[in-house]
Amino acid sequence: MFAAEAKKLIDKVGDKELIYNESLIKKVDLLTLVKVSRGKFWPVQKYKIMQLSLPELMEVEDFNPECTDEPFVSNFMTSTKTSGRGGLGGKDIGVYEAEVNAGADSMDGLVQPVNMMSKKVDLKALRSALSDGTIKTDKVNQLALKTKDKLAFVHQTIYNSSPVTLIRKCTRDGSLLASCIKILSLFAKGHRKEKTSFTVPEKSTFAYGLVEIKIEDEKLKILCEPWTRDGLFGDDIESAVLQQIKEALKMKDAFLQPLADLPESTRHDLLKKLSELAEDGDTLSLLEQTLDQCSNGAFEGTLSQAVSSFMDLLDISNTSSAVKDAVHLLVSALDTLPDEVPPLLTCCSPDTLRVLNQLVDGLKDGQATLPESLPVPLQEGGELRWAAEFICLNDQKLKELSDGWDRPELPPEVLLEVLCLAVQGLSLMQPTANP
């Protein structure tokens, strides 16, 4: 797909200074503020696009920065044909079409070439105009920065200069694990033929570059070097084998168990509200942030109605610390997953969740194996089949997947752990018996 191919291109020519925009729906303008944070339980980078710009932080009106707008890549064209049979990482199949005991024949391509453009702020002129300027304290408070959060602004955007029309033809049989690399949202259905075309609107932001800022004594400091993707938490993430993941799961499993002690009606209401919150990644992140601050004392900030309703259900003042920590761990696991995944997990049927939880238990005990009888969402072509296969990975397949992984901020080892914990936590929230 064009977005995936553009991402590979950006990775090759953009070094580590460009951050891929996960959603082309999100508009990212120059000078937009971005909060970079890390999860409490996992050293994972999170980029939060703020509804505030650098000039607004200082209440500078009618600010027009000096910018350059020039080609990033000219006549970008992609046409990919894949075919073959074999195991994950087969010679004839690229990392975006990784195959597991399956067959695939497909062709992706652009109808015509497109220019990718780069728009940059003149950092030297920007520093001259804004450095050492006074920051508005009330604006900083609105950002709700935690101690380890970093604050940056967008100094570069990469966008397509004209609409992009993509045509895709494919014939597939079997089950592909490619979805785990394609942001886990495009699981290929078995025995399917398709021909699709779609258009990406012009000036869609595919990537952006950041420059970190610091606030000292209410004065703005713009750092000299652009932000790099591995600049903050990369050293905290180490490659893990399945045994390490199993040990981590067994340890954190105990922290989730208090969820089962909640009254059944409370679990039902919390799970229903959580499924609503999971539809919006930003709202789910706000809930995680609220629980984090509550664990360190009273929350100070503005809550959305949805988050307030969840906190009222949890009844934070009368709930034991063990239960609060368990809810926090579950929400953090869901928030760490790619945005497309929490809605699928929180809304899946009890039968589907039961089988996924059995697979997690199998993983902790040794090696998970898919049973012969599966609920529809876990069957070949089902929307959660990738999750079942992911939990069943062995050390070799996990390593092969890691070698072709394109999301350094969320390694497959971390993804596997948070997926399993989310499944376990949601399973504990289920009714003890079917009505």
TrEMBL record:
What is this protein's record name?
Uncharacterized protein LOC102201867
State the organism named in the record.
Pundamilia nyererei
Domain Gasdermin pore forming, chain residue ranges per copy: 1-223
User: Where is the protein localized?
Assistant: Cell membrane; Cytoplasm
Q: How is this protein situated with respect to the membrane?
A: Multi-pass membrane protein
Q: GO biological process: what's one of them?
A: programmed cell death
Q: Does the keyword tRNA processing apply?
A: no
Q: Which InterPro entries match?
A: Gasdermin_pore, Gasdermin_PUB, GSDME
* Top-rank taxon, per record: Eukaryota
> Which family is this protein grouped under?
Belongs to the gasdermin family.
Q: What gene is behind this protein?
A: LOC102201867
Segments forming domain Gasdermin PUB: 256-380
Q: Which keywords, in A-to-Z order, does the entry hold? A: Cell membrane, Cytoplasm, Lipoprotein, Membrane, Necrosis, Palmitate, Transmembrane, Transmembrane beta strand
Extract the Pfam families matched here. Answer: Gasdermin, Gasdermin_C
GO cellular component entries: cytoplasm; plasma membrane
